[in-house]
Amino acid sequence: MATKLIYWFREGGEDKRALLGGKGAGLAEMTRIGLPVPPGFTITTEACKMYYSLGEKLPPGLEEDIKCYMSGLEKETGKVFGGRHNPLLVSVRSGAPISMPGMMDTILNLGLNDETVMGLYEATGDERFSYDCYRRFIQMFGNVVLGIPHDEFERALSRLKSEEGARLDYEISPDGLKTLVKRYKDIIREKAGVDFPENPYDQLMMAVSAVFRSWNNQRAVIYRKINKIPDDLGTAVNVQTMVFGNMGFDSATGVMFTRNPSTGEKVLYGEYLVNAQGEDVVAGLRTPKPIAEMADELPDAHRELTRIAELLENHYRDMQDIEFTVERGKVYILQTRTGKRTALASLEIARQMVHEGKISKKEAVGRVKPEEVARLLHRGIDPGAKNEVLAQGLPASPGAASGALVFDSDTAEALGQKGEKVILVRPETTPDDMPGIVYSQGILTSRGGMTCHAAIVARGMGKPAVVGCEALKIDLEGRKAYVGNVVLKEGDVVSIDGATGKVYLGQVPLVEPSMGDAFKEILSWADEIRRLGVKANADTPEDARRAREFGAEGIGLCRTEHMFMAADRLPVVQEMIMAQTTEERRRALDKLLPMQEGDFYEILKAMRGYPVTIRLLDPPLHEFLPNVEELLVRLSEMRHAGAPEAEISKVEEILRKARTLQEMNPMLGMRGCRLGIVYPEIYEMQARAIFQATARLIKDGYRDVEPEVMIPLVGEARELSILRDLVVKVGEEVKQREGVDFQVVVGTMIEIPRAALTADEIAEYAEFFSFGTNDLTQTTFGFSRDDAEAKFLHKYLADKILKENPFAVLDQKGVGKLVQMAVELGRKTRPGLVIGICGEHGGDPESIKFCHRAGLDYVSCSPFRVPVARLAAAHAALEA
Q1: How far is CA 597 from the centre of its chain?
Q2: Helix boundaries (H) for 169-217
Q3: Nearest Cα to 165, choosing from 178, 154, 174, 176?
Q4: Binding residue per annotation — 143?
């Protein structure tokens, strides 16, 4: 039996989303529940997959099937496709199973030619409308199907408007539109080397192929990569009877959301244009009106849209993004889908719907993506600073950013890849600007509304955007922009505030974010659901306090080496390194002891009531000295300048020591517990500082402090045994001398494969394990992270040798097996062994899911990732 590749809207529904795509499933569902949907049919994603498997050719028999369905559409509408009288016109739209707004292609008014345009004129009595539809169709067909740049047609349109003295598109005369049709056809002949096809069925088959091809256009591929959407889903094609919003001032087209997609406020939100077609709104070619104004301009249509919005939201139990057309007063719904929204709106809508009884707390938590929470932690403009506003646009996507102005996507991409901060400035963005948008700090456009391409894409990516900034006059060819008398050249720095729509000249001060009520409430529900604990990696009291604000339940990694790098301590650390004898080294360590004790006192105090895991010194000692090349240059300069011999001798001594400490592979050399074995006095000083700080806090009335000592880079149980004895001995000495009691808890990092393989032996001496997955990934793969990311990892990812960067997302097949093995072996020896993870993977949602499945007790991540981890841990529990 042949595979069914086409479905009428009335045959489908949400249960066929994978086959019909999101748009097709939505159209089918709306048809099923009786909403006013123009009739049509969907060519399935299976047909798209077959198209690619056949070398970008339509599957055998599909053209005949399409013609058969078009005959059915003719019967249903009473119109004839390609007919001289009352012609049937259709739209051809993409629709992937997972929403990819604006990434693929659409063609409207298909079926028009030199004959059918006269039939449309005859049927409507409106010559201007008929030729307006025709010129739009030729432009879209030329761009989407034949690949002619959009700007070629826009230049011809601007020239004609200038000739006629028309300011807006709808002011062009019928004769002017006829002239434009001829010019558009000339552009196609010149740029594509073919004539515009007059046969409607040729148009239709070419359009279907073009929509299938758009699945793999650059912007769609980039969007899928960013949003981790599989490449093999394919897109459906929806062929739908045209309805017209450009039939006069009782007609309109627009986009609306059932709630505000920026704030989550429960209010009908959107925009419309009278006497226009859909691409005018989405492309930002005209600045639309707020949907609220329709209540006065087209009151009956506004009432009907309000009714439909409520019906659709109640049906789908989520905020909806709805495209509509009003044709001579009658409302038609062209699409509904779950609306893209900002992170703030996502939280607010989820919370509201729980309180409205529409969804459960678990559903609310499940709907808020962990990475969305991360976006809420973007910085904003400091409200206390005196900043001069340069211009005002629409606040399309919250967050603030500063950067150098660039006027095209390619430049933005090139500079962004070099790490430079840029703001992409365009009259309006199109899907072709995606590469530049990805690498920009934010987006600024002079045209467009809150539902234009730039606004939708920026909100989805969590980037700040200001759109419709009409005071901004852009000269793309001159690579300049003007705001009144102010001239902005490419490279000039501006700042944008996507929450207010304000644009500032130069760089402005930014402020750190804070958690709002909806944020806190959703996270409290997540805390009720999750099993995994969430701690923070924090090295300073400020980090510890911020981590607590974000809900951290302790510190999973406090790196003591960061404390040594302070300007007042580095000379003392270098003195310790330069010491020739143990006595000299101890004298230097005695100077460091009160400094370290003060650090630990403040961190333990900030995190009182929760465990604080302090890792003893890990990096090689040479990291605290200038590198050999720097020292050689300094010596050469000192000799050339005639510096005193004593100063030269001092630098020569540092150079000798630096050369002595040089290693072929320092990451696998004299570091971690090996330092503690060779120089036990270093670890002894650190342990003493930890326990003296603990004793002082207890005496000061803070009895709920919980220090834990972590020994790094253990690969052999005897290493941990020796260093554990040292730490316990120091702890007992401090307890006895200070007359206080506290627990001495010692554990280790599991960060080399041998530690995982012998975890049963190591667990005899460890009360906890913490996976240092950054180093464990390096040692498992045999990668140096810096070299891999700089030299070849991008190629491995591009060629799909690796699915993800293993330093960003935990490698479950390799590193993950070692983690599982260590958990099993460790708990076999010590059933109550506490196990966590403290590498960067502790803040990655996919890695957190693995940690949940592997039976870990907690994850630890940077303070700003703590809310992300709390939500991801709840998602892991929901999916288990």
Answers
A1: 40
A2: 174-192, 200-214
A3: 176
A4: no
Q: Which two tokens stand for residue 247?
A: 């039939």
The answer to whether residues 74 and 104 touch, using CB atoms and an 8 Å cutoff, is no
At 750, list the tokens. Answer: 């599991």
Decide if 46 contacts 180 (C-beta within 8 A).
no
Query: Hey, how many other C-beta atoms are within 10 angstroms of the C-beta on 249?
Result: 10
Of the listed ranges 63-67, 469-473, 684-688, the least confidently predicted one is: 469-473
In this structure, are residues 833 and 761 in contact, taking their beta carbons and an 8 Å threshold?
Answer: no
Please indicate if the annotation marks 506 as binding a ligand: no
Phi (first) and psi of residue 4, to 5 degrees: -75, 120
Place of tokens 């505030």: 497
Asked if residue 80 lies in contact with residue 72, where contact means CB atoms within 8 angstroms, the answer is no
Name every residue whose Cβ is closer than 8 Å to that of residue 522 and which is 6 or more positions away in sequence.
Answer: 347, 350, 351, 364, 365, 368, 871
What is the secondary structure of 610-654 as a DSSP string?
SEEEEEPP-S-GGGGS--HHHHHHHHHHHHHHT--HHHHHHHHHH
Q: What percentage of residues in the chain have a pLDDT greater than 70?
A: 96
Amino acid at 351: R
**Range with top average pLDDT, 39-48, 215-224, 533-542, 662-671:** 39-48
Which pair of tokens denotes residue 87?
């012609």
**Which residues touch 160 (CB under 8 Å, ≥6 apart)?**
166, 172, 176, 179, 180, 183
User: Per-residue confidence at 458, pLDDT binned at 50, 70, 90?
Assistant: confident
Report the alpha-carbon distance of residue 83 to residue 89 in Å, rounded. Answer: 10
Q: Model confidence over 681-703: pLDDT tens digits?
A: 999 999 999 999 999 999 999 99
Contact 95, 23 (CB under 8 A): yes
Instruction: Say yes or no to pLDDT of 283 above 60.
Output: no
Q: What tens digit of pLDDT does each residue of 174-222 get?
A: 999 999 999 999 999 999 999 999 999 999 999 999 999 999 988 888 8
Residue 388 marked in a binding site: no
Token duo for residue 31: 């048809």
CB 426 within 8 A of CB 510: no
Cβ atoms of 730 and 756 within 8 Å: the answer is no
Handedness of CA 826, 831, 832, 835 (dihedral sign): positive
Global model pTM greater than 0.85: no
Dihedral sign computed on CA atoms, order 422, 423, 426, 432: positive
Three-state DSSP at 320 gives strand
**Spatial separation of the C-alpha atoms in residues 93 and 99, rounded to whole Å:** 13
Half-sphere exposure of 444 (CA within 13 A, CB side): 36
772 known member of a binding site: yes
C-alpha distances (whole Å) from 604 to each of 212, 238, 540, 742 are 59, 61, 10, 13
**What residues pair up with 489 in beta bridges, in sequence order?**
480
74 phi, psi to nearest 5 deg = -60, -45
What residue type is assigned to position 335 of the chain? Q
Instruction: Quote the CA–CA distance of 352 and 354 in Å, as a whole number.
Output: 5
* Dihedrals phi, psi of 2, to nearest 5 degrees: -65, 145
pLDDT at 280 over 80: no
**Helix H or strand E encompassing 688:** helix 680-699
CA angle 623, 641, 631 (to 5 degrees): 15
Is there a contact between 499 and 488 (Cβ–Cβ < 8 Å)?
A: no
Mean pLDDT of the chain: 91
* Contacting residues for 297 by C-beta, under 8 A, at least 6 apart: 274, 289
Amino acid, single-letter form, for residue 163: E
- The answer to whether 267 and 310 have CB atoms below 8 angstroms apart is no
β-sheet bridge partners, residue 252 = 274, 326
632 CB burial (10 A radius; 0-12, 13-18, 19+): middle
Active-site annotation, residues: 453, 838
Q: How is residue 169 written in tokens?
A: 């598109």
Whole-number Å distance between alpha carbons of 705 and 697: 8
774 is in an annotated binding site: yes
User: In the block, which residue shows the tokens 């900002």?
Assistant: 342
pLDDT band at 388 (very low <50, low <70, confident <90, very high): confident
